[in-house]
Design a protein that fits this description.
Helix content is 47%, strand content 14%. The chain is an alpha/beta fold. α26 crosses α27. It is globular, with a radius of gyration of 28 Å. The protein starts with a helix and ends with a helix.
């Protein structure tokens, strides 16, 4: 039966772990599991047959790490073909009578994508595409993308699958104990992006046991309108007699999965540590459960790489300032490629309280597609706000949508046939929440009724492309009342009729209404309030206007959208103290800021970052502004000693971001961009010190490596970057490093600190072997370990001195060891 049809009314059962079973069968540390497709085909067939016999509907071909970064083209084809030969043989010989499917299994490449890493997004798409094409040719029934811990990497894999096949695609992400991906995405953010790109099923696998993933699954079920899947580990790993074992057994595992099936999960299996016995137990407990129907949750969402913004509940503010229209300084920045100016505009608006940033970089004399792609990427490197990609050029729109990390707003489409035919295919492919202007070949209608008629036409056309009305937001167009005093009434009526008659969200560019009038903000802010009362969902507006922001916060408080009036109180406390009408202060305009002057908050070389007074250099580092950090440092070096800048600016800035990261106030991307900005500052400092005969690291040696057999070096590279920025002399040996090579480098340097990283359970034995050799040959060295499969208990069992779950914990541990060495 067709898989998509079968899954409409039935549970689907996946297989369980492969790597841990291969270890039991003799897979050696450092040996690549995919090569067993050829060398030990009988073992692979036996494992997969056991899963089919236990009741699995879907068994994953042994291709998790089969990609062009590990294997040349000829070997990659051989391994993928052999993987499907093995899986088909397992299905053929199985005694199971259930529907059976074989999936192309795609795991992460193990490279962090730019701007946080060094790997290009399009290179990742092509690497995944090679594997997809081979899997399709080998006869895959579906594609299963799993264990992805970065939203951007996930998008690259899904895009490759969609562009190179028409097979069903399931996507599963690996969440940490905080319920987020490594780079900060929430489950809701992943739902928004993946549904927008038409994944057939979505969910979570690996990292944690089923009980630890309950919160993640509940968020998926709340937001997802496609089937939700779960493939958890058998609890947490530990080492016993050199073997990796897990602490949740089949009955307990099955009972936890049963609870999730009853909540609405439709697809279940297991990951690390699970066996056919686990799948059999899950299948048995499901027999008396009726699958919960998959329903459209009807949520209008946009997302960044961290979170969603939902339209239709509380009004949404869209910052209008990244737009060259009428802004000479912004136009100059575009012509001069002054991206830092644009980034600062975005950051100031974020500080002012907008939830989405409009991004328009259209000038006739610049390459708009190239500039929109660049600005979108760089804005996403310094802010986690979702973006509205604002362009009338379909080429620029596609460039922006393709590179965007999340589900973007798209501004805009209208009722003209040629425009809809250009824009809707892009939204259907990449996902998006599209702004639709109520105009067509006849122009902008004068009446609300005619604008609503255009809205109906747009909805019908969108549906032809599979775009639901929840992914449309109408702009009924605010026209200036100086030309037609009935214009505002028509717009407000259209807002009301579209919102409550058609049941679709609405947005307006508010300031147009007052064009050509004096004291424009009086008209604009009052119009904003009236439109909100008519059901306006969002506004593109100036967040530096006290009048506009006051309307927003008071409306939310009066409509019970601000529990305990908390946001209003915070906002009001930040306003200048009110003064009596007629007083000198009032007549001079005190207490009102409609121009946005001073929004950067800079005084006497200081700046405000997240409510803290910091130096200009600290501000640049905290915000991840690399070019600005370098320029400020270069200027400071004319009057300040290099090491004073390090101690008084660079390290304090990193500490601020580091502490926020530890407190979950910021996520990995912000930490990495701050590190990159501080790196630019350090380059200037090192150049100055080198010219005077100094330079180089200021702290002890630290040897770091990904262990033998493991090519995943994202975590290791992150730790390296942060350690270097704290002044440690980091010696990075790379990935897949033999045990003795690590020991030899530690001995050569007499390094006091060693960091070992592993992502896969199959490579943890190599980590244990490395530690044993270090104890024999470099007993002075302190060893810290980290990676997705590690826990404190596991680290203790394999003899490590420390387990660090992230880069900042590694820095803290290294500082502690260095301090103890200095005290000796």
């Amino acid at each position: 039966m067709d898989l998509r049809e079968y899954m409409k009314n039935n549970f689907l059962f996946l297989d369980g772990g492969m790597g841990t079973l291969l270890q039991e069968a003799g897979l050696q540390p450092g040996e690549l599991p995919e090569r067993w497709n050829v060398s030990h085909a009988d073992v692979i067939v036996k494992i997969q047959k056991d899963y089919f016999d236990a009741g699995s509907n879907i068994v994953l071909a042994n291709t998790f790490g089969a990609n062009s970064l590990k294997f040349d083209d000829d070997e990659l084809k051989l391994l993928v073909d052999s993987a499907f030969d093995n899986a088909r043989e397992a299905a053929r010989t199985s005694i199971g009578t259930q529907e059976k499917y074989v999936a192309l299994d795609i795991g992460p490449l193990g490279r962090l994508l730019k701007p946080y890493g060094d790997y290009e997004f399009e290179d990742a798409v092509e690497a995944y595409a090679k594997t997809v094409r081979l899997g399709v040719a080998a006869g895959a029934d579906l594609i299963f993308i799993e264990t992805m811990n970065d939203s951007y990497d996930t998008k690259a894999a899904l895009l490759a699958a969609k562009e190179n096949s028409d097979l069903p695609v399931f996507v599963s992400n690996a969440y940490g104990s905080d319920g987020k991906l490594m780079t900060g995405a929430s489950p809701a953010a992943m739902v928004a992006m993946l549904e927008g790109m038409h994944a057939d099923a979505i969910g979570a696998n690996c990292s944690l046991g089923p009980d630890q993933l309950i919160g993640v699954m509940e968020e998926y079920i709340e937001y997802a309108s496609v089937p939700v899947l779960i493939k958890p580990n058998a609890g947490l790993p530990r080492s016993e007699n050199g073997k990796t074992v897990f602490d949740v057994y089949p009955p307990e595992f099955a009972a936890s999965i049963k609870g999730l099936l009853e909540k609405g999960v439709r697809i279940a299996g297991g990951c690390c540590g699970t066996t056919p016995e686990y799948i059999k137990a899950v299948k048995e407990v499901s027999l008396d459960i009726t699958p919960v129907p998959v329903t459209d949750k009807n949520k209008s969402l946009v997302s960044s790489y961290t979170h969603v913004v939902e339209f239709g509940k509380s009004p949404i503010l869209i910052g209008e300032r990244i737009n060259p229209t009428g802004k000479k300084r912004f136009q100059q920045a575009l012509r001069e490629n002054d991206v830092d100016y644009i980034l600062n505009e975005g950051l100031k608006q974020a500080d002012a309280g907008v939830q989405v940033l409009d991004v328009n970089v259209g000038l006739p004399e610049i390459n708009e597609p190239e500039m929109l792609e660049r600005v979108a990427k760089e804005l996403q490197a310094v802010t986690d706000l979702p973006l509205q990609l604002d362009t009338s050029d379909p080429v620029a729109m596609e460039a922006g949508l393709r590179c965007y990390n999340g589900k973007a707003m798209v501004n805009s489409v209208n009722g003209k046939e040629e425009v809809m035919e250009a824009v809707f295919p892009l939204v259907a492919k990449y996902g998006g929440f599209v702004v639709a202007l109520t105009l067509d070949e006849g122009g902008i209608p004068d009446t609300a009724e005619a604008r609503v008629a255009i809205a109906r036409k747009i909805l019908a056309k969108a549906a032809e492309y599979g775009i639901a009305k929840k992914d449309i937001i109408f702009d009924p167009l605010a026209m200036t009342i100086s030309a037609d005093t009935t214009a505002a009434l028509a717009t407000m009526q259209a807002v009301h009729d579209i919102r409550f008659g058609l049941g679709v969200n609405t947005s307006l560019g508010i300031s147009n209404v007052s064009f050509g009038l004096p004291q424009r903000m009086l008209i604009t802010s009052t119009f904003f309030a009236l439109c909100l009362e008519q059901g306006l969902s969002a506004a593109i507006m100036n967040p530096y206007s006290t009048e506009m922001m006051s309307v927003y916060y008071t409306f939310r408080a009066l409509h019970n959208l601000d529990p305990n009036c908390t946001d209003f109180i915070t906002y009001a406390q930040g306003l200048p103290k009110m003064v009596p009408a007629g007083s000198e202060a009032a007549s001079s305009g005190a207490g009102s800021n409609t121009s946005g002057a001073g929004a950067a908050g800079t005084t006497s070389g200081a700046a405000s970052a997240a409510g803290r007074e910091v130096s200009q250099l600290q501000n640049a580092i905290i915000r991840g502004l690399k070019e600005q950090a370098a320029n400020i440092t270069k200027e400071l070096l004319q009057t300040v000693e290099p090491l004073d800048i390090v101690q008084n600016d660079v390290i304090p800035a990193l500490d601020i971001v580091g502490k926020d990261f530890e407190a979950k106030k910021v996520y990995l991307p912000q930490l990495l961009m701050a590190a990159e900005a501080s790196k630019e500052a350090f380059e200037e400092i090192k150049a100055k010190m080198a010219s005077s005969g100094n330079g180089g690291p200021t702290r002890c040696s630290f040897v770091i490596a990904t262990v033998h057999g493991d090519i995943h070096d994202i975590g290791k590279n992150i730790v390296k970057l942060i350690l270097e920025n704290y002044g440690f002399d980091v010696h990075d040996l790379g990935k897949d490093v033999p045990e003795q090579d690590i020991v030899d480098k530690v001995v050569e340097l007499h390094a006091p600190l060693v960091g070992l990283s592993a992502l896969m359970t199959t490579t943890v034995p190599a980590m244990e072997n490395t530690i044993k050799l270090l104890r024999e040959q470099a007993p002075w060295a302190k060893v810290t370990v980290g990676g997705a499969v590690l826990t404190q208990e596991y680290a203790d069992k394999i003899g490590a001195d420390s387990y660090c779950k992230d880069a900042m914990e590694t820095v803290r541990y290294a500082e502690e060891i260095e301090a103890s060495l200095k005290a000796e």
